[in-house]
Amino acid sequence: MSENTAMPFIEHLVELRRRLIIIVVAVVIGMGVAWNFSDDLLNFVEKPLSGQTYLTEIKKRVYGEVKLRYPAVYNRYQLDKEITATVRERRLNYSAPLEPFFIQCKISVIAGFILALPIVFYQLWLFIAPGLTLTEKRLVFPFVTVSTISFCVGALFFLIIIWPVIINFSLSYESQGLQSWFNLSAYINFCLRLILVFGLIFELPILALLLARLGVVNYGLLARNRKYALLASSIIAAFHADLITMFVIMVPLYLMYEVSVWVALLFGRKKPVPADAGV
């Protein structure tokens, strides 16, 4: 009796190991491909250090409107200095031997993982497929495609929108007696960690869709627990040091929960209608 019940569990472990091995191999291959353009990725992540980002362009347009409409305010607060500020050259610094090499490895691993996402999600699907119906198993291609796109959108949203905000806020503390001196490892580790966080945040609706189709969760359950989702979002965001980072993590995280609620409503498993309902 115990042997019969233990075998399925062992088979699940063997299957899990097989899927993990395939995922690791795919990530290593992706890392090898990403290694060739890891320097370009590093340069892209460094761009906000110049102080010239999309925030700078928005600031120039706003200050330009203030100059036209409220010249007294423009002159009083010397907003022209903000517009004509020169681009400063800031460089990342390292203090340990081989530190740049290990940072290049980390960038390549994360980039390789993102390149291997279709394989990662496909292996995940194969692992959970035995518990799905025949109709649900046919959704493998939409699942892999949407999951990959969602993760990439979350990562790009962070890099293009959020990352410049964080760095711009940090640089705003510079003054004559206080200059930035960013460490290479601290800077890149912080960025890579948030790339993964935002990628996973944008996967929440996909997870909600799967759980809703399996009948594990439904719209009513998710809607009733909004306050706990807000609390959980705040707790997760609280693990980051500064208020700005906490805010930019908490808001997207809770918004993705709201999206998950509506995904469960629209695509969740419908309750069967009783045969005597129309009587």
From TrEMBL:
Part of the twin-arginine translocation (Tat) system that transports large folded proteins containing a characteristic twin-arginine motif in their signal peptide across membranes. The keyword Ribosomal protein does not apply. Belongs to the TatC family. Keywords: Cell membrane, Membrane, Protein transport, Translocation, Transmembrane, Transmembrane helix, Transport. PANTHER family: SEC-INDEPENDENT PROTEIN TRANSLOCASE PROTEIN TATC (PTHR30371), SEC-INDEPENDENT PROTEIN TRANSLOCASE PROTEIN TATC, CHLOROPLASTIC-RELATED (PTHR30371:SF0). The lineage of its organism: Bacteria, Pseudomonadati, Thermodesulfobacteriota, Desulfuromonadia, Geobacterales. It comes from Geomobilimonas luticola. Forms a complex with TatA. It comes from the Bacteria. InterPro entries: TatC. Its main location: membrane. The gene is tatC. It is found in: Cell membrane; Membrane. It is a multi-pass membrane protein. The keyword Cell membrane applies. This is Sec-independent protein translocase protein TatC. It holds the Pfam family TatC. The chain crosses the membrane at residues 20-38, 101-127, 139-166, 186-216, 228-257.
